[in-house]
Task: structure prediction
Amino acid sequence: MNYLLTEEQEMIRDLCRQIAEEKIKPVAAEYDEKNEFPWEIVKIMAESDIFGVYIPEEYGGMGGGVLEMAIATENLSWGCGGIALAFAATGLGTYPILLYANDQQKAKYLPDIAAGKTLAAFCITEAEAGSDAGGIKTTAKKDGDHYILNGTKQWITNGGEAEIYTVIAMTDKTKGPRGASAFIVEKNTPGVSFGKKEDKLGIRGSATREVIFTDCKIPKENLLGKEGLGFIVAMKTFDHSRPGVAAQAVGIAQRALDEAVKYAHERRQFGNTISSFQGIQWMLADMATQVEASRALIYAAARMVDSGAKNIAKISAMSKMFASDVAMKVTTDAVQIFGGYGYMKEYPVEKLMRDAKITQIYEGTNQIQRSVIASALIKEGLAK
Amino acid sequence: MKILVLIKQVPDTTDVKIDPVTNTLKREGVAAVINPFDMYAIEEALRVKERIGRDAEVVAISMGPPQAKEALKEAISMGCDSAILLSDRKFAGSDTWATSYTLSQAVKKIGDYKVIFCGKQASDGDTAQVGPGVSMHLDIPQVTYVKKIEKIDGEKATLERMTEEGYDIIETPLPAVFTVVKEINEPRLPSLKGKMKAKKAEIPVWSAEDIGCEEDKIGLDGSPTRVVKVFTPAPREGGQIIAGEADEIAVKLAVVLKDIVLGG
Amino acid sequence: MPQKEMIRIVMDKCTGCTLCVKACPFGAITIEAKKAVIDISRCTLCGACVEVCKFKAIELDKKEAKTSVDFSLYKDVWVFAEQKKGKVQSVAYELLGKGRELADKLGVDLCAVLLGDKVEAECAELVARGADKVYMVDNPKLKAYLDDPYTKVLTRLVGKYKPEIVLCGATVIGRSLISRVAVTINAGLTADCTGLDIDEKEKILLQTRPAFGGNIMATIITPNHRPQMSTVRHKVMKELSPDTSRKGEIIKEEFSPETFESRTVLKDIVEEIEETVNLAEADIIVSGGRGVGAPENFSMIKELALSLNAALGASRASVDAGWIPYSHQVGQTGKTVCPKLYIACGISGQIQHLIGMQSSDVIIAINKDPDAPIFKVATYGIVGDIFKIVPALTKEFKKILK
Result:
């Protein structure tokens, strides 16, 4: 199908798909079982320049936008949604820098990220502050030429593997929503430590850990933007990264659909392939339509973000919510089509179902997404 | 220092299927790819460049129809610095003698090369003759079936040549031709920057005249071998299907195969 | 004045039926505006399209593929007797077997060419296997194969004695050596021949080999160049049993020292031990394919092989999946085997695999897909689950072999 991609976007799509088929797919089940971080795939992606897809050329990237990042994520996720996170979560951790860093900060950090030499991670969630991000308790206290960070971030993707952490911490509790700021923290800074690697239901090819700051002293130059911008940095970051989560979801969904179609041709019951039964056919038709609809919405959202439009929160949230709900449904249906075999780990679809679930939860639960959409709708309604 | 890689664009034989009605090859829509063995040659050339550093340059060369430019672009997207296509209607019908002569003429024109890499053989012709042919036309040493380059500098190289029993260690002066086997490396994927470079790359096309080919040495005239007949082989007769439960089948087969199995 | 192409489509006869498109092994024909169009740059003038066209819409000026030069000076069939560590390799005996047939048809001598160091003792066996003459060049510098001296020696021998046919094994050594000689003397070389015969009328060598993965066979000749050279893979031809009553002449040749100079230096020979029975020599081979499913399941195949004292083979799918090393691969890009019994488990029988094993005496195929191509070549086919059948077979064979 022609999605009206440019030649460069097609190049990204084809190369990421090639990496997914030739390099990721053969090892995905093993990384999933062993709960291991896929450094060998990170190396391959780095050598193919994938990490620089959304980073400006002056820092060694390709100068693409959210659409390019989404295309890359989608196709890598086709191979494995977990392994693709080494790339996608780095994107999430890098967007604060792309959007709010000054030239010195960009020049310092972006080239190595673009080259795939360093990974990044975004730290906002805490034990008591998930959907209620405003309830974070990590503090950053100004101390001469430094800030001292104290607190624990939870469930950080790429935690412990990344070199660069963009962290949202409270600089002034009295100012409420204006009291948080965003910082860049390097892994080897004294006072940075990590919790155990979490044992997850899905996306086990990615690493999730607590990131703990204990009197962690960082130079004041590592502040992103100004004090008080913390939650705005976070919101704007999510507006850019949500199409990426959606892309991960649609990549997983597409893979589930492909496996289901293939299996339906192979499996024979009652003297026929199950693909000849209307019940299965209708399931596949619904799955395929939902996947296309997700993709169309994601590409529209990404294009809108890249156009520089101001009010991108709504469509960004829509794409993430829709694609992740679709992914959950499509992967569950795929398991159903595989029947008993679908429930067995030998067959690839149960992993897809486990991987899909997280896309409905992280980077803002789908309930939060609905709130974001509703609030945008109401605001637009009032403005008329 | 120039490192040359000779590549060939071939049909993707994993795609080639037999038409059950006419019993001939189904050729429509068969993708053309770089000869799989040549991928290892390109990869090794790139690794040698990385080992030597500084002013090493990898040039990919192919003899073929205009479509072969796609294969050369893929070579550039993997990291080759440049590419040259040898294309001319006069090359049509070349067998390996004429092909190795033509490639050698191009190599002579490029000059200043230290190593010429080739894949072990092409997946369509399978003759494995072009590499050695080129070394003879250029009168330079060759090492075939290379599975590892232990040492290499601007003057000589020490290599492992795969044999049926293991390998030989061979030392050769440069320039030389190396044909490589699959065991030598794992070819890299293209990079985005490489693909961009390939997109913009200007690939010169050299004709028979450009490389000073003598007419009677190229194309059909230059080919000592001639295909006189093409036919589909008599299919081997299928035998009988044995049915039943696993145990029954095993017993039936054991009876039938007894003589062979007991060494009769 | 535009040159008339040697092959052309007769437009008013062509119906665009696409039979020629499908028949062309080189992809040189496409259909444009319902008429066939030949891409001259891809066309090798092989004539496959001419044969299939029902409407006689393709005209081919066959260049006179008859011998037009006098080659009466060239006589005899030669076989390069490859030796390693002083022992002649069995592929040379197979070639002598075929060479004897060719020489008899032509009414000429069959000669073996033996290069090595202290290899005179091997000459007797070469004669017993069919050679009328053995040209031997014995020199310490020829102990192990090196490109330069072997190429020079063989080239000079060919130049001196002018054989009309030279056969050589398609081995690492054979392929390296014979291509160099062929280019030097501007001879035609056809690699990996599966069939060799003599055209009785023209007295020339007909070389048959597979093209495009073996689905198409091509017959090739070298009309205007001598000698006609071919390489043949191990186990394709059949050797003659040794006949010690045969008599043959041994001709020792000497060359000047510069002939034996080599630019490359052989520093060491390293042997790697294979843990299972040598695939190429095995009488029984059990192979596993994609249907085996996972590396741990290969042990089931291995057990069957062990119960039969057989060698373990594999299709490319299982090698590529990393379940078994490449040294076990049977097929176009692996080994060609010709055992008495070949058992294919979970192998679909793609043409690339069939090429490597279809000349086995008896083929057993086990596959759950009744349409798998392997059943077309299997002597006995079993449509079923390898995970049930293979263990049952293992049990049964263990019983009878007790």
Summary: The domain at 279-400 of chain C is CATH 3.40.50.1220 (Rossmann fold).
